[in-house]
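A student in our group prepared the protein record below, which I am reviewing. What it holds is a sequence and that sequence's fold in token form. My question to you is simply how this chain folds and whether the tokens agree. Do not assume that whoever made the record got everything right. I have pasted the whole thing underneath without changing anything:
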Amino acid sequence: MYLNYVVDIPEIKGKITFRNKGNARYVYYEYDRIYDPSKQYTTVKRVTIGKVSDDDETKMRPNENFRKHFPEVEVPESLADSERSSCLKAGTYMVINQVVKNAGLNQKLEDVFGAKAAGMILDFAAYSIITESNAAQYYPDYAFNHPLFTEDMKIYSDSTLSEFFRSINENQRQGFLDKWNEERNHRERIYVSYDSTNKNCEAGNISMVEYRAAKVDAGFPIFNYAVGYDLNNSEPLMYEKYPGSINDVSQLQFMIEKVKGYGYRKIGFILDRGYFSKENLRYMDNNGFSYIIMVKGCKEFIRDLI
């Protein structure tokens, strides 16, 4: 969250950069550089420390990161009058709130993560949908003029949000997916549309982030992210992340075992060409699953394989 006072933008040569987003201009501070000799590249560590003032380009509204890296700067005696906008943009929030209630999503999140965390998750999800962004440093700007799911519509800082998401463990994540799927009708036939993508990652030392052919090659290591979607009921069923070195063909059978683990038996799959292989076709046939899958061209060996 951006604090309700302004300070001078630090003058540190080579350490301060700026980035424009929408009508705002953000200030970034480079606090470290780490060289990885095994991968032969340097990871630059930057954080947002403030937003340039509309009234004076030499000043900015700081955030918690600024206080962490520049503790010597004193808080001015004169503060701004308001921490929230007098006009809240409520339309899209009302639609999202109704969807959340219809799906029982708020209660499921509270059961797994607790009430405070559930509000933070829903707020960040709404922020991502409305602004089409998932950068935590811009969340306080959104929270300033939108209704929130948190108790008393409390605005949490971007650093608090980041710490919370880092604290979520695999058991909690899987616990939510189990709860999401347990109330569904497992006897009806479902058709699972499943697809994955990979994302470039600049976050540094994360074990599942690895170098491999990226769909958008920016020279960074990648991770894979996949979503399974029930076409009959127009609802997502599951999501999963896995290391960047694992290809789609190898991951498919693990995903199918997860779907079976949720209790679904009458399953059909709709898949793109990335999952086409002799082993995968045989695996689905042996399990009695119907499927529609795009093939990689019309070569003779593919006709023979089918």
